[in-house]
Amino acid sequence: MSARSLPLLPLLLAGLLVASGTAFGLTFAAQLEWQERDAVSATVTDLTVSNSSEDGPAVRGSLSVENPLDRRVQVNGVRLLVFDGPKPPDQEDRLSVPRSASIDRVTVSAGETVSVRVRADVRPGDADRLRAALEDGTANTQGLLELTMIEKPFTVDVE
Asked: Could you tell me which of 148, 51, 58 has the C-alpha nearest to residue 96?
């Protein structure tokens, strides 16, 4: 090594330490947010029954998705079950068709709450029963909201 390259060595070492520290900090912050992903919440509101001559009866509602994290999340899908009575539902209490729910794909920015429309099929024979359960206040929901954050999929419970 020449005498001229010696002053460069501490500068290169300092630059390497700064770059490594920055990369570690960004990775650590992303990992912390990933660990807090369960803070995202989803709540069903405003359920109604609709009858469509093309699609048949369906239950429609709003899903309030709250994202308290510092990073945006993408809503990809939903599994929603509407039933009559207390949780967990018995087979005969199910009023919506399992795995028939659909939801608009939206992005929920950091710190925002977004209302998203959700729809699930109802067997024709259960439409009146569902209307009665909604009027009586005995209808309940449970399910999973499918999300993506930092290119990784995850789910949260739907209340």
From this structure: 58
CATH code of 39-158, in short, is 2.60.40
Beta-strand (E) ranges in the chain? 41-52, 56-66, 73-84, 102-103, 107-108, 113-121, 139-149, 152-158
Q: Are 104 and 117 in contact (CB under 8 A)?
A: yes
How confident is residue 3, by pLDDT bands cut at 50, 70 and 90? Answer: low
**Residue type for position 10:** P
Chain mean position to CA 41: 7
Q: Evaluate if pTM is beyond 0.70.
A: yes
Instruction: Encode pLDDT of 54-73 as tens digits.
Output: 778 999 999 999 999 888 99
Domain boundaries along the sequence of the chain: 1-35, 39-158
